[in-house]
Design goal:
The chain is an alpha+beta fold. 38% of the residues lie in helices and 23% in strands. The chain has 2 domains: 110 residues, PurM-like, N-terminal domain (60s Ribosomal Protein L30, Chain: A), CATH 3.30.1330; 189 residues, PurM-like C-terminal domain (Phosphoribosyl-aminoimidazole Synthetase, Chain A, domain 2, Alpha-Beta Complex). Helix 6 packs across helix 7.
Amino acid sequence: MLSEILAASPATAAIARAFPNLMVGRESSDDAAVYRLNDSQALIATTDFFMPIVDDPFDFGRIAAANAISDVYAMGGTPIMALALVAMPVAKIGATAVQRILAGGEAVCAAAGIPIAGGHSIDSVEPIYGLVALGLVHPSRIKRNDRAHAGDALILGKGLGVGILSAALKKQVLDDAGYARMIASTTQLNAIGADLCARDDVHALTDVTGFGLLGHALEMARGSSLVACIEWPRVPLLPEALPFAQQGIATGASGRNWQSYGTAVTLPAGMPEWQRNLLTDPQTSGGLLIACDAAVADALVADMHAAGFEFAARVGSLEAPSAGRAPGTTVVS
């Protein structure tokens, strides 16, 4: 993972020493940087952009914007504004398509209650769109990805399978119901993250994106020196993705994810490859992964259901290392 290479750079520690107000930097592969402004405010800064995963320009803009803003919510923050990052082959796709992409991004930012206050655009070979997203959080309420406690419950906020649905779309086998599910999942804002910042019983927070559930659970386990224990039967799946997964449809990124961190993951004997592919499936604008006190987990899941996260589920726990279970590993049962 590139994030781990950057985190391990000797310059990372030097940056932390030179800039004491940098509360979260590269050291833990977290979702965003956080800089203390004063005793009651810290600035969250993050950026994300990518090439289209759907053909519809408006939907592409919506997905890219929701994905970028998610990292602010994953720090427990409230977004305040965004800057657009726009690289487009205008002569190839036309001004109307570009305008639709930008309109999609504006629509999601409006839903988040923030403006797109500026940005930068260039002409490029392939279309690329995303945001720089900025937010605020109280310095004592930041939700990092490396502060989980032994015995914490793990909650996942959205169902897995976005990558598989996008692969089915590329193969031209995705029906209207599957497309609608993919759009609904990828454009749903993780706004509940801003509410979690006030909860002392929520100890760590991240969002599941490109590295899949296993990869982001592993980051949390490594940062907290714990073992992430995932219970496969509890993992929520987007129902429209399931038949495609069982047919062997998967993204190339799913296999690369497994190659990059599979040595730190223990799977059940005989687990089918399609199930592993779902656990490593890259999620665009995926759900929050929450480590919280086990005593409040069921109530928190109920709160998430009430907030519109229908697939939210308790998927496992974080445990202290033990014989045969080294810190910074993931075990699936």
